[in-house]
């Protein structure tokens, strides 16, 4: 009995620093966030309860709908590029028996760049005049694009940067998953007369379904919180075409000092992302069991 | 090993696919980076030329030294190193004992604590931005790297990875040390940590890379320009710095991470699959 008490004391001694860090920087902010959404907080006056006023202010802000539309557009485009491209790339790389180390190295290089560096490099590559992209297009006899300077292409341009910078991670995770597929499955499918596309669809995809689903959900959650690229590259423009939910949240908190309304927006974001997170939990739980 | 396409049949088709893949991937992932490194060595006037020159007409490699001077990069490098090394050291000092306690000492409520920690992983980072910022401000930690160190220590993913590794250590080794009368601290330091080098390498690389790449937290915490990290300083300088100097600054600030990757490539890539997706 006494030994058990002593052991518990030692254990809690070991845990104490972590408990303090989690309490102050995770658990308390979670609780505080829920409260802040219903308060007026501006650092000038005492925080006061305002009920649903913060939410009403948000709904009245024309940028609110714009920000959600832009964020959903970013997420959708990021899925088309960031989800499909790495998978197909991994499938191709898995077939190649040469330069494996080189391919692995170069697709992961951009992942090591700080996102601000990647964003600033691409901002310069996108320059419609001397920028590399339009120069290359003109060299191929194709028309250039306005990229970040036009509301029609600005979001797509940001998605390209984010995909370029992060695609290495997903590609290498898929590659590892592909390598664990038993070869006899392909053998058997081929004997049954399945061509390459059918083997891809009936063997490769089902065998990697779990990894695909997990990365899909993680990616939705990550891309809905996009901030660095629009903040550094466009500041939300042109014509508010790249104002994302997080950029709007940042403006409320750090331009207007309206922390209450920013928190209300956080709560709405939580509501949306919570659905995806719950789904992710269910998927990973099932796989564990 | 047998993959989608049967080996052996690979003839001309395979060679064409190999060449196309090599060309496309090199163009997409290597050319932009080489382009930046080279362009930084062109004078500003040459950079404005349409169409651009491929190799610099006038080589000005001195741009790199000039950029270092003009933007005072030494200071921001130091600030970033202080943040990254601090995050790494504090995260290990806090999370290793915690994970060991949860894994081996199994205290009352241990499972509940682990559950509460893992719960924070489900919280999207953006949702906690405002309340965490206000808490940092309340503690008087704005413009103090300690804010980022402590924030980094509250990392449930690290605790989870370490605990899972400690769970798998052979019980006999620990039991033998215990019979020899070793205390828990000695056990952790002398027996467990030397056995845990692989996971410590993975966790350390995660911590340093994440701290170096981080933008939003340093942006919020360091309003004082003298304390900012490279990422925050570079985006502040970007609008009114000559392009060649800015590019040189971007290259220089990426060198440590690229270097780390080239040296520890195996560990970085091992962590990728060990961490994000199980099984």
Molecular structure report:
The complex is a heterodimer of chains A (289) and B (279). Chain A has 289 residues and is an all-alpha fold. Chain A has one domain (54-288): MetI-like fold (Orthogonal Bundle). Chain A is built from 13 helices and two strands, in the order αββαααααααααααα. Chain A has helices spanning 2-36, 53-60, 62-95, 100-112, 115-125, 132-139, 154-179, 183-191, 196-207, 209-223, 228-234, 245-254, 259-288; strands spanning 39-40, 48-49. In chain A, strands 1-2 form a two-stranded antiparallel ribbon. In chain A, a hairpin with a 7-residue loop joins strand 1 (39-40) and strand 2. In chain A, helix 3 runs parallel beside helix 7 (154-179), helix 8 runs antiparallel to helix 9 (196-207) and helix 12 (245-254) packs antiparallel against helix 13 (259-288). The longest helix of chain A is centred in the first third of the chain and has 35 residues, at 2-36. The mean pLDDT of chain A is 89. Chain B is mainly alpha-helical and 279 residues long. Chain B folds into two domains: 12-66, no CATH class; 72-240, Orthogonal Bundle (MetI-like fold), CATH 1.10.3720.10. Chain B has 15 helices and no strands. In chain B, helix 4 (73-105) crosses helix 8 (156-167). The two termini of chain B are 20 Å apart. The mean pLDDT of chain B is 90. The chains are: A mainly alpha (289), B mainly alpha (279). The interface between A and B is large, with 109 and 99 residues.
Number of strands of chain B: 0
The class by helix and strand makeup of chain B works out as: mainly alpha
Task: Give the overall pLDDT of chain A as a whole number.
Answer: 89
Largest interface, and how many residues on either side? A-B, 109 and 99 residues
CATH topology of chain A: MetI-like fold
């Amino acid at each position: 009995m006494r030994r058990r008490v002593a052991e518990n004391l030692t254990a809690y001694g070991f845990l104490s620093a972590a408990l303090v860090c989690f309490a102050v920087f995770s658990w308390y902010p979670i609780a505080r966030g829920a409260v802040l959404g219903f308060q007026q907080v501006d650092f000038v006056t005492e925080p006061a309860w305002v009920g649903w006023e913060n939410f009403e202010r948000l709904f009245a802000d024309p940028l609110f709908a714009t920000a959600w539309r832009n964020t959903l557009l970013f997420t959708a485009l990021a899925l088309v590029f960031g989800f499909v491209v790495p998978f197909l790339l991994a499938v191709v790389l898995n077939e190649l028996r040469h330069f494996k180390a080189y391919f692995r190295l170069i697709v992961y290089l951009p992942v090591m760049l700080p996102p601000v560096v990647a964003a600033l490099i691409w901002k310069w590559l996108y320059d419609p005049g001397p920028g590399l992209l339009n120069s290359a297009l003109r060299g191929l006899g194709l028309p250039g694009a306005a990229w970040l300077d036009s509301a029609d292409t600005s979001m797509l341009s940001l998605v390209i940067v984010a995909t370029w910078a992060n695609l290495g991670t997903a590609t290498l995770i898929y590659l590892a998953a592909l390598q664990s597929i038993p070869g006899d499955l392909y053998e058997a499918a081929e004997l049954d007369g399945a061509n390459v596309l059918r083997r891809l669809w009936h063997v490769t995809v089902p065998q990697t379904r779990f990894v695909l689903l997990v990365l899909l959900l993680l990616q939705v959650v990550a891309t809905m919180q996009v901030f660095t690229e629009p903040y550094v590259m466009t500041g939300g423009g042109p014509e508010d075409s790249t104002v994302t939910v997080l950029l709007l949240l940042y403006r409320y908190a750090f331009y207007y000092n309206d922390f209450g309304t920013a928190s209300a927006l956080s709560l709405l974001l939580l509501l949306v992302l919570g659905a995806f997170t719950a789904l992710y939990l269910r998927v990973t739980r099932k796989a564990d069991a | 090993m047998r993959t989608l396409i049967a080996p052996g049949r690979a003839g001309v088709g395979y060679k064409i696919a190999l060449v196309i893949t090599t060309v496309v991937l090199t163009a997409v992932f290597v050319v932009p980076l080489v382009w930046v490194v080279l362009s930084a060595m062109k004078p500003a006037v040459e950079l404005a030329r349409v169409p651009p020159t491929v190799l610099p007409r006038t080589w000005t490699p001195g741009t790199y030294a000039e950029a270092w001077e003009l933007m005072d990069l030494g200071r921001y490098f130091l600030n970033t190193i202080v943040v990254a090394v601090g995050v790494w050291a504090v995260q290990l000092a806090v999370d290793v004992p915690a994970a060991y306690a949860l894994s081996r000492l199994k205290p009352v409520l241990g499972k509940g604590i682990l559950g509460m920690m893992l719960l924070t992983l489900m919280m999207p980072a953006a949702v906690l931005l405002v309340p965490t910022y206000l808490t940092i401000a309340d503690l008087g930690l704005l413009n103090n790297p300690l804010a980022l160190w402590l924030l980094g220590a509250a990392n449930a993913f690290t605790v989870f990875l370490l605990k899972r590794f400690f769970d798998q250590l052979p019980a006999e080794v620990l039991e033998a040390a215990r019979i020899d009368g070793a205390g828990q601290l000695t056990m952790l330091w002398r027996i467990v940590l030397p056995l845990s080098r692989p996971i410590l390498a993975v966790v350390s690389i995660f911590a340093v890379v994440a701290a170096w790449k981080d933008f939003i937290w340093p942006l919020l915490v360091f309003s004082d320009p003298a304390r900012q990290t490279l990422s925050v300083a570079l985006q502040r300088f970007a609008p009114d710095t000559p392009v060649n100097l800015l590019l040189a600054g971007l290259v220089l600030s990426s060198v440590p991470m690229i270097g780390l990757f080239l040296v520890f490539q195996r560990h970085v890539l091992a962590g990728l699959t060990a961490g994000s997706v199980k099984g």
